Amino acid sequence: MGAFVISKRFNGEFKFVFTSRKGKTIFTSLSYATQEKCEAAIELIKGTIEKSTYLKFKSSNGKYFFKLVIDEIELASSRKYTTELRLQKGINEIVQYASKAETLDFSSDDFIFSDLDIIEREI
C-alpha cells in the first residue's frame, strides 16, 4: 500500500509525496504555508480520488509526467517516467491505493539521534 509522506522544504513550507508500495515517489505536492493546509490537501485527495483528473505531458527530453488535478485545482506533479505505460502504472497505483494510504509526518526538525550518538559514530 502507498503512503503520503509530509516533509518540510528548505524555505520552511510543507509538501508531501505519495510513494508506491515499493517506496518510489509517484508524485510531489505543491508547497503549503502550514502543515494543516498540507494535511487538508492529503485528505482532499484521499476523499475525492475518483474525481481526480490526470493531465499527461511529455517533456522536451522525451520523459512523461502528469499533474494531479481535482476540481480544477492542481495539487501535485508526478515524477518523470520513461514510457507512457509506466506513467499509467503510476496513475493506477494512485487510484488503487491513495484512498487507504497512511500519512507519515517527517516535517519536524527533531533529530532521531542525539549529538552524542553522532559524535560516537564519527570516532
From TrEMBL:
- Domain DUF1508: residue ranges: 11-47
- Its domain of life? Bacteria
What the entry lists under InterPro entries is as follows: DUF1508 (IPR010879), YegP-like_sf (IPR036913)
What single Pfam family name could you report for this chain, choosing any that match?
DUF1508
Q: Name it.
A: DUF1508 domain-containing protein
Species of the source: Flavobacterium psychrotolerans
